[in-house]
Specification:
Layout: E1 6-8, H1 11-15, H2 18-25, H3 34-39, H4 50-56, H5 60-66, E2 92-98, E3 101-108, E4 111-117, H6 130-139, E5 149-150, E6 153-154, H7 157-174, E7 177-182, H8 188-200, E8 204-208, H9 215-225, E9 230-233, E10 240-244, H10 255-263, H11 268-272, E11 278-283, H12 288-292, E12 295-298, H13 301-316, H14 329-344, E13 349-353, H15 358-370, E14 378-384, H16 391-402, E15 406-412, H17 416-419, H18 423-430, E16 435-438, E17 452-453, E18 464-469, E19 472-476, H19 489-496, H20 504-515, H21 517-520, H22 524-530, E20 532-534, H23 550-563, E21 567-572, H24 586-589, E22 598-599, E23 604-606, H25 608-614, E24 620-626, E25 631-638, E26 646-650, E27 674-676, E28 679-681, E29 683-694, E30 698-699, E31 714-716, H26 717-722, E32 751-756, H27 765-773, H28 781-785, E33 794-801, H29 811-814, E34 823-830, H30 839-843, E35 849-851, E36 857-859, H31 869-873, E37 880-881, E38 917-918, H32 924-936, H33 949-953, E39 959-963, H34 970-975, E40 980-981, E41 993-996, E42 998-1000
Parallel strand pairs: 7-8, 7-15, 10-11, 10-13, 11-12, 15-16, 16-17, 21-26, 23-25, 31-42, 32-41
Antiparallel strand pairs: 1-33, 2-3, 3-4, 5-6, 5-17, 9-14, 18-19, 19-20, 21-29, 22-30, 23-26, 24-25, 24-29, 27-28, 32-39, 33-34, 35-36, 37-38, 40-41
Helix pairs in contact: 6-27, 8-19, 9-15, 13-14, 13-15, 13-23, 15-23, 16-18
């Protein structure tokens, strides 16, 4: 039966724009850089063939000879005294913690080079997020300060201590206030240090401030239940999930953990057991969570409050005023039906909202209480400690400074001169403070306004701990000596408060020995080995909401009315950039946004109809003006699924003092945030106007086209229950094929992979993990625009539409469709398929790409002469060509090309040079390492001994790798699933990677 869906990668393909059609005709997607290659501007190498090549012109010989430059000679110096724990060529692993995630840090010869998940972290602590994978690059960031700074001059730590102690003595004597302003602190030892500092200087107060705030949830829970906490959400226990703008698979609270929980009810194992959760998403802009929802309905920010009132009335039978959506009857009808389902699934449902408005969150609490969520899907007794910021306290702090009441302020892990909602007011108030100290590691927007920059250490150089949830503790330990002359912020505070113990390592250990370890029955050495210790958790209590909601509903409606004008703007955290703290990380800048696939920029997302009404086209630069007068200019991105009459802009961009990679990338959207009713609100109204300019965004999505082939296969859960092979194409006889090649023998191992499309959320952690593991270079915005990104694995995002029962399968039919609100999305990881009948192998004239005896398609880099025949003949378009020597070319020194960032390179993987083709090697270095370890232990390889970098990083466990010759291996079991199909199997290249069909639990409610 012909599919009633049509998939397209982007609007260019959907509309068949002239540029897309023209580019699709080319033999190669990327243009030929003739002038750049010939001119060699910025190259440090000298080739005697330059004049000859210029005279000859650019032909096959130019690219071929590009791979034949003489290799540089480097002299090596052996260890004079070898460290006892270091064996050359053998990695060491240390447990640590990154932003609440317990991780393993892989080091080689003393250099941290890779972050991996800690297997002891817990059931739902699978994988890592993209930020954790990229964080190792921050250690080697050349934009960091080399020494501490006092009054804009480099100095010594002794002089810093003398200066700060003297100023603190003056501050204490003046009777004025001292403030420590930090992001939320979940470290027991850091909290203790701050408490000791306050004891030494009683005028001190600790103010916690988060650039992206969760104060609304904290205050709502305090109001509703007397507990000012962010709850522990248990998505794994929810059979029905309803989200209003909460991007819980992306950036909301703890996306990586929630992904593991969420997928546990939707993955292959759950489906085999006949169970799949049901997920409804109401949101303004298309989020990664919205792309994974079973049913997604776009709503305006002004409609969220009335929508929640509608849901509350549907669940409780009440009649709170304002529960109507006159301009969105589809959403109103759906919400009323969802209300019935929530009641039917009482105790097994969860409603969440991404709003930071206290009244909105109180209304959500009332709904969850009425459906019995507390004690099951919501746990207030074992709360999440990662967010404790108080927006009102920070606003009052600025007022205190402005009144001249503060004599000293310390900034720890915050940058309010960039992300405060009114930076001018903040800077003016800060200028009135006598002592201003920043613990930043660089001259950022806030530290440049300070008298002292007491440079802090990277977490990979530090001691510390974390207590993310009640009863769960993890350790941070250094994996390398400080790269620069920096000192841990906690140690500085201990010295300045004249603490009896000023060595922070000893301080942390004393705190654990006294307060934590006795309750666990473990020792300090046990902790350093496993990384995570737990104490018995509390029993999650049931909580009943008993407050009157009339005033709450009126507050919600007032906020809604204030937004219902002009263009409604939602500002949000993007998955790569988050709040902008790590804007100087080139791996994150080049990570495509999971939905838009844009790199190196933010933009204003508009729906197609709305953009046409305003007279805007994609990439037009428009002026965005808020009511407070703040104005920025951004390019337009046409985003299917964007609510009509709204716009979305990502936070985290527009840094001016982040570093070489992060400066002046995108525009700052924080001034669009409003302070309303005691919290920061991320929805506002703006006006838009044309500037006449044009700016092409660097997108990766439509760089490769599959010409309408059957790449994605999906079915509904109801269809799957009746027939597990539904949608997979595995029914009946398949297309008859003929072999032109002899079959390859795999006598020992046959390395294959299975990818579950129902588990992959598109987060991109696998992309960054692959980049770090395999020394994949960052090429920058201009190269991405020219289709020269080097990622070995990409995640293709496919849009599709349903038009009732009508079959929409042909371009000429799809062109006439108007309603792109009904769009659905599928994410598909795409990498080298390691085909048994690989088309690339037959066209390489120098046998640079060959087939191995264990089923892999391998690259011999030193044979490659750069003809690119293999890339042209690859039906999956997964091969990457090095147009330049990205690792050693001054044109790319903003990214990874310098003496420090080279330290992040994996010595087990060759850094490819100019003129060489590369692609996924299936982490051959890991395969060989696993084989060697088994050999040394005199045992056969076991399933699970070898994990790919992408597989290991995936928080959803969507990727399974193993030996296809072992019938009991996890990958063999996955590939035997009736859901498994092979992409482009009709052309008989016999790929080694199988995909499992996407299943959606759609029911009576349709978008």
């Amino acid at each position: 039966m012909e599919s009633n869906k049509k998939y397209w990668k982007g609007l260019e393909e959907y509309k068949k724009t002239p540029d897309f059609v023209e580019n699709n005709k080319n033999e190669f997607a990327e243009p030929l850089p003739i002038e750049d290659v010939l001119n060699e501007a910025g190259l440090s190498t000298v080739t005697p063939r330059r004049d000859f090549l210029k005279a000859l012109g650019f032909g096959l010989g130019a690219v071929t000879l590009a791979a034949c430059q003489p290799a540089p000679v480097h002299k090596s110096v052996p260890y004079l005294i070898k460290p006892e724990e270091v064996v050359p060529g053998i990695p060491n692993y240390y447990v640590s913690t990154y932003n609440g995630q317990s991780v393993l840090v892989k080091t080689r010869e003393g250099r941290p080079i890779k972050i991996e998940p800690n297997p002891n972290a817990g059931q739902f602590e699978l994988g890592t997020d993209a930020q954790a994978q990229a964080s190792v690059l921050d250690l080697y960031d050349v934009s960091k300060l080399k020494t501490p700074i006092v009054k804009n001059e480099e100095t010594t730590w002794t002089k810093v201590d003398e200066f700060v102690k003297g100023e603190l003595t003056k501050a204490q004597a003046s009777g004025k206030k001292i403030r420590i302003v930090s992001s939320s602190v979940d470290s027991p030892s850091t909290k203790s240090v701050i408490a000791d500092f306050i004891t030494a200087y009683p005028a001190t107060k600790h103010v916690q401030y988060d650039a992206v705030s969760y104060t609304g949830i904290l205050k709502a829970n305090e109001n509703s239940f007397g507990k000012a906490v962010v709850p522990k959400y248990n998505f794994d226990k929810a059979d029905l999930i309803v989200s209003f703008g909460a991007d819980f698979l992306g950036t909301w609270i703890s996306g990586k953990e929630f992904t593991s929980q969420y997928i546990s009810n939707r993955n292959a194992k759950s489906l085999v057991n006949g169970k799949m959760s049901r997920h409804f998403q109401f949101e303004t802009g298309m989020s990664i969570t919205g792309t994974n929802a079973d049913t997604r309905l776009p709503i305006k920010p002004s409609e969220e409050g009335p929508a929640l009132i509608t849901l509350y009335n549907a669940v409780t039978g009440s009649s709170l005023p304002g529960g109507v959506l006159p301009n969105n009857t589809t959403a109103e009808k759906a919400i009323k039906l969802i209300g019935k389902e929530l009641v039917q699934n009482a105790g097994k449902s969860l409603v969440v909202s991404g709003s930071n408005d206290v009244s909105t969150q109180i209304l959500v609490n009332a709904i969850n209480s009425s459906i019995g969520s507390y004690g099951t899907t919501i746990d207030l007794d074992n709360h999440n400690a990662r967010y404790a910021g108080n927006d009102a306290e920070f606003a009052e702090f600025i007022k205190e400074m402005d009144r001249g009441e503060v004599s000293a302020v310390f900034f720890l892990n915050v940058n309010p001169a960039y992300d405060a909602i009114n930076t001018k007011a903040f800077e003016a108030a800060l200028a009135k403070v006598a002592l201003k100290v920043s613990f930043s590691d660089r001259k950022d927007e806030t530290s440049t306004l300070c008298d002292v920059i007491a440079t802090n250490l990277n977490y990979l150089e530090s001691w510390g701990d974390a207590n993310t949830y009640q009863g769960t503790y993890s350790i941070i330990q250094p994996t390398i000596n400080p790269v620069f002359n920096a000192r841990q912020a906690e140690q500085s505070l201990l010295i300045w408060s004249n603490a009896p113990v000023q060595d922070y390592y000893q301080y942390v250990r004393n705190n654990w020995d006294k307060n934590i370890l006795p309750a666990t029955g473990k020792t300090w050495n046990d902790l350093l080995q496993v990384g995570v210790l737990t104490t018995p958790s509390k029993t999650a209590g049931t909580y009943t909401f008993s407050l009157a909601l009339d005033a709450v509903a009126q507050s919600v409606l007032n906020s809604s009315k204030a937004l219902a004008k002009d263009v409604e703007l939602q500002v949000y955290e993007s998955v790569p950039m988050r709040n902008g703290r790590y804007a100087n990380n080139a791996f994150l800048q080049e990570l495509p946004d999971p939905v838009s696939k844009v790199t190196w920029d933010n933009y204003i997302a508009l729906g197609q109809k709305f953009a046409e009404q305003l007279g805007f086209k994609e990439f037009d630069v428009v002026s965005v003006k808020a009511a407070n007068g703040y104005t920025i200019e951004l390019p337009v991105l046409i985003q299917p699924g964007q609510a009509n009459g709204t716009a979305s802009i990502a936070l985290g961009y527009g840094r001016t003092k982040a570093g070489k990679a992060g400066d002046n990338v995108g525009k700052n959207a924080y001034p669009f945030v409003n302070f309303v009713n005691g919290t920061q609100q991320y929805a506002t109204t703006v006006s838009l106007s044309k500037t006449g300019a044009f700016y092409e965004l660097a997108q990766t999505q439509t760089h490769y086209s599959f010409e309408g082939r059957n790449i994605i296969r999906e079915a509904t859960f109801a269809e799957y229950v009746k027939d597990p092979a539904a949608g997979s194409g595995n029914h009946g006889a398949k297309h008859k094929t003929y072999d032109l090649w002899d079959a390859y023998e795999t006598p020992m191992n046959n390395w294959v992979m299975a990818i579950d499309l129902n588990a992959c959320t598109g987060c991109g952690s696998c992309i960054v993990a692959c980049n770090v593991e395999n020394n994949i270079p960052v090429v920058g915005r201009d190269e991405v625009r020219k289709r020269r990104e080097m990622h070995w694995i990409r995640i293709d995002r496919y849009y599709s539409i349903e038009e009732g029962d009508k079959s929409i399968s042909k371009e000429k039919e799809i062109e006439h469709l108007e309603n792109l609100d009904r769009v659905t999305v599928v994410h598909q990881p795409m990498l080298c398929q390691h085909c048994d009948h690989a088309p690339c192998e037959t066209v390489c004239p120098v046998l640079a790409t060959v087939h191995s005896s264990d089923g892999l398609n391998q690259m011999a880099y030193n044979r490659c002469v750069g003809t690119r025949y293999c890339a042209n003949n690859c039906p999956y378009k997964v091969r990457r060509f090095n147009w330049f020597n990205y690792w050693n070319d001054s044109r790319f020194d903003n990214y990874l090309n310098n003496e420090f960032t080279h330290l992040v390179l994996n010595p087990d993987v060759t850094a490819r040079s100019r003129g060489v083709m590369e692609k996924c090697s299936m982490c051959i270095q890991r395969i060989q390492s696993g084989k060697l370890a088994a050999k040394l232990e005199k045992r056969p390889l076991k399933d699970g001994d070898i994990q790919m970098a992408c597989q290991q990083a995936c928080p959803a466990n969507a990727i399974v790798f193993g030996d296809g010759n072992d019938p009991e291996s996890e990958v063999s079991k996955a590939l035997r699933s009736q859901r498994t199909y092979y992409v482009l199997e009709e052309i008989n290249v016999q790929p080694g990677i199988g995909y499992m069909t996407k299943i959606r639990n759609t029911g009576t409610v349709q978008a």
